[in-house]
Design brief:
single chain, 396 residues, alpha+beta, Barwin-like endoglucanases, six-stranded mixed beta barrel, 9 helices, 19% helix, 27% strand, disordered N terminus
Length: 396
């Protein structure tokens, strides 16, 4: 059964030693009237993922907070609200969902270091589709790798609590841990990890890595005609370097030309330099294969739940705890047309740092990619937190 259809566990009393948090530099109380477009957002689209979110949060009640995972919303704060959510019909109207959220939740505006409402940046990501084969041959020359057997992921939070959530990647060189291989080093035949698939276009393969997940339709060979999901599993620990900036710095493209489409056109004109361009970015993402059980569902985010187009956001979990409903006020990609939506903080990203900085999941396929590629808009953010439970806070 889908997450949202499963019954929620019963409420668990908050332990006496975990009182609600009472203050935070990141938030200030707000009113529903301050949320632009709140009354016109079709919030019924949030309900199914909201129930799945509730279940995921409450199942964490009583578990110690992980030192390595992103900070999750305090599950005790959500006990009563999530219990009350079970009383609504399975497919409530927008008015019913709006009334429920207004009754049970309190909006908190996300503040900047000066105590003012933060203006951040909203970008967007999506789930691309690539054409691939299980076997290398012909046009299918661009690998998407599984996790190498010798990749070490070291959780610094288990050694130093002040570094909770921080990890480093590397490999053993004798008794020393050294940085893992760069993109160009991984390409050496003796270093290549197993490839899950081979893709027919280098730019498609590269941008699937940038997105961190995607689907591959198998054009030839074993499984021909089927579609699999390539889900993020790990990375080699090197920082991402923009190949668009690399092309601009060398005078190959202007800033206005350095879009996904412009990079693709450059690669077609310069096939002999494609590897040189790709290797300018030392970072490599590794994947695991998943079945696509429901084509309408997105990939799983950092909470392990399927992402919902326009209703799932990647956030900075050091400010907005994962699992928290939020209200985002921004504009449509490359436009001044308002985009005001109630959403869920369900994912994270290496570039998503700071108050009101969000990455909106736009969905699957080329059309979603076209929109996501143009999204770089100013944003404001409100966290929606249960009334009477203090300010938004992570599990402790």
């Amino acid at each position: 059964a889908p997450e949202s259809a499963r019954p929620l566990p019963p409420p668990v009393p908050r332990p006496a030693h975990l009182p609600p948090v009472q203050s935070s530099k990141h938030f200030a109380k707000a009113s529903w009237q301050q949320l632009p477009g709140w009354k016109t957002d079709p919030v019924e689209k949030l309900w199914r993922p909201f129930l799945a979110n509730c279940r995921s949060i409450i199942l964490r009640t009583g578990r110690p907070a992980s030192t390595s995972a992103p900070q999750m919303a305090d599950p005790y704060a959500w006990q009563q609200t999530c219990a009350a959510a079970r009383e609504l019909p399975p497919a409530p109207t927008a008015d019913a969902v709006r009334a429920f959220l207004e009754h049970w939740l309190q909006p908190w505006s996300v503040r900047d270091p000066n105590g003012e409402q933060a203006t951040g940046l909203a970008t967007s990501y999506y789930e691309p589709l690539v054409h691939a084969s299980r076997e290398r041959g012909g046009d299918y020359q661009w690998p998407l790798y599984s996790v190498p057997a010798d990749l070490l992921t070291i959780d610094l939070g288990s050694l130093y609590p002040e570094l909770a959530g921080k990890r480093i990647r590397g490999k053993l060189d004798g008794k020393r841990v050294v940085p893992y291989d760069t993109r160009s080093e991984i390409e050496r035949p003796e270093r290549q990890p197993p490839a899950i698939v081979w893709v027919n276009d280098p730019i498609d393969a590269f941008f699937l890595q940038v997105q961190g997940t995607g689907r591959a339709v198998l054009d030839t060979g074993p499984g021909q005609g089927s579609t699999i999901r390539l889900a993020y599993a790990d990375h080699n620990g090197h920082p991402y370097v923009s190949i668009g900036k690399w092309l601009i710095d060398r005078g190959e493209l202007t800033m206005s030309q350095a879009s996904m489409q412009g990079i693709r056109a450059w690669a077609r004109k310069n096939p002999g330099r494609v590897k040189e361009m790709l290797n300018a970015n030392p970072a490599v993402v590794f994947f695991r294969e998943e079945a696509v059980l429901d084509p309408s569902e997105g990939p799983k985010g950092a909470m392990g739940l399927p992402l919902t187009p326009l209703r799932s956001l990647a956030v900075d979990p050091s400010i907005v705890p994962l699992g928290t409903p939020v209200f985002l006020s921004t504009t449509q990609p490359n436009s001044k047309q308002p985009l005001n939506v109630a959403a869920l903080a369900q994912d994270t990203g290496a570039a998503i740092k700071g108050p009101a900085r969000v990455d909106v999941f736009w969905g699957f396929g080329d059309e979603a990619g076209e929109m996501a590629g143009r999204m770089k808009q100013p944003s404001r953010l409100w966290v929606l937190w249960p009334k009477g439970e203090g300010v938004p806070a992570p599990a402790r």
